[in-house]
Write a structure and sequence with these properties.
The protein is an alpha/beta fold and 439 residues long. The chain is built from 15 helices and 14 strands. The strands form 3 sheets. Strands 12-11-10-13-5-4-14 form a 7-stranded mixed sheet, sandwiched between helices. Helix 9 crosses helix 11. The longest helix is centred in the middle third of the chain and has 17 residues.
Length: 439
């Protein structure tokens, strides 16, 4: 089995070292693993393994992700193994009968970032790195801080001041990372952390690091395995810095190449309307990304200059995919429906469902096609948005699915008045959640 880092621009091959840019043209790198042989049966058999690295929903696919890592170097919190759900309320809302929700918010720190971070931190251990860092709107910093602390490695995160949800910032601080608040947006933080990595010898662990993408591939591997190795017609993803779009596209191409699936799903990368440079590029046929000043309540995808756009565009082309954008109103309405289904997610996650609904309305997603929506983060990542939606306190947002608390005097007669009749006579709240096989 051979492993190398290949530049996506000039094609130059590098040894798998600590670099994250091409030494020739400074282009982005991707991991290339050749001579892999593995079967569905072998991967399915690993589901029955006990407390080993195979119990991780990432390291179960080790040969496809990082074959160079020795077992003793793996830094894992049993990430992955996230649930796959259906719900009649969500299907009705989207107009898509066969719609699945893959809930990455069930990862240890509450987001999909843990999949990439277990690989990134394990690679840092392999390299002997003493300091790791990232720029983040919150989820990456939470994950980095946790996994670095588990590994006994120091960490620093650059976050945009006032533009990170408190739930995410509190995680980052609690896990022990040094947090540097930048007077600017995410793109400013991303620029500075790259400069700091070069000048201070910090091992950079944003999705520009090719090993992060390898870990995030496991999301698609696990989804397909949960569906009995049958591909959905579509996979809808929130799109911010575009690491996930890159990772899922790469994973699907590899699954087809290995003969583990026959049909290639189409990717729909969904951006927030106020932070949609990738959509603008795809829609208008631009040859380069044109950065924008991001403005969206979905802070996890509030990114105006995504670093992984070249890899992501390859994923869209390879899967005959599309790029869509949705408004904050559409995102928060979709989130309210997901939340009220008992599943719950952070705002950016709901862009996947909002995008699927819009694509179905435009008949791009056809009647009868199956769709898997990736929910990237936990509802508890950004509780302020959820509360303010239901209290109708968000400027410019019509809380169409509001569920505000009811203020009542401490009097049982007043309580009875709220119900209006005996609770046994009230109609049932229809809607059924169906958890599929949870690995």
């Amino acid at each position: 089995m051979a492993v190398s880092l290949v530049c996506v621009e000039c094609g130059r091959e590098h040894e798998p070292s600590g670099i994250w840019r091409c030494e020739g043209c400074s282009g982005m790198l991707e991991v290339r693993i050749s001579e892999v042989e593995i079967s569905r049966e072998e991967l399915d058999a690993r589901l029955s393994y006990g407390n080993t690295h195979y119990s991780s929903g990432v390291w179960r696919y080790k040969e496809l992700i990082h074959p160079l890592i020795e077992e003793k170097m793996i830094v894992s919190r049993h990430e992955g193994n996230t649930g796959l759900y259906t719900h009649s309320r969500v299907s009705e809302f989207s107009g898509i009968k066969e719609l699945y929700m893959k809930h990455e918010g069930e990862n240890p720190t509450g987001s999909f970032k843990d999949r990439g971070m277990t690989v990134g931190i394990s690679e840092a251990v392999r390299l002997g790195s003493r300091y790791v860092g990232c720029a983040s709107t919150g989820n990456t910093s939470s994950s980095l801080a946790s996994y670095a602390s588990v590994a006994g490695i120091s960490s620093v995160v650059f976050v945009p001041s006032g533009k990170i949800a408190l739930g995410k910032l509190s995680q980052t601080l609690a896990y022990g990372a040094k947090a540097i608040q930048i007077n600017g947006n995410f793109d400013d933080a991303m620029r500075l952390v790259q400069e700091a990595a070069e000048r201070l010898g910090i091992y950079l662990l944003n999705s520009i690091n090719p090993w992060r993408i390898e870990g995030q591939k496991a999301m698609a591997f696990e989804l397909i395995q949960q569906l009995g190795w049958e591909s959905p017609d579509w996979i809808c993803l929130p799109a911010g810095n575009l690491g996930n779009t890159s990772a899922v596209g790469k994973a699907l191409s590899e699954l087809v190449g290995l003969g583990l699936i026959e049909d290639m799903p189409r990717i729909a990368a969904v951006q927030a309307d106020g932070a949609s440079p990738f959509y603008n590029m795809w829609k208008n046929g631009y040859s380069e990304i044109r950065p924008v000043e991001p403005h969206t309540l979905a802070t996890a995808i509030s990114i105006g200059n995504p670093v992984s756009w070249k890899k992501a565009m390859k994923s869209i082309k390879d899967t005959n995919g599309v790029v869509e954008r949705v408004t904050d109103q559409e995102i928060l309405d979709a989130k309210a429906v997901i939340d009220s289904s008992g599943i719950g997610c952070e705002p950016a996650s709901a862009a996947s469902l909002a995008g699927a609904k819009r694509l179905r309305s435009a008949n791009i997603i056809k009647e009868g096609e199956s769709v898997a929506c990736i929910l990237t983060g936990s509802m508890l990542k950004d509780p302020e948005i959820t509360l303010n939606y239901h209290m109708s306190r968000l400027d410019g947002i019509d809380a169409r699915h509001m569920n505000a608390p009811i203020a009542v005097e401490a009097d049982i007669d007043k309580i009875v008045e709220v119900f209006g009749k005996n609770a046994k006579e009230l109609p049932l709240d229809k809607g059924e959640v169906t958890p599929l096989e949870i690995l």
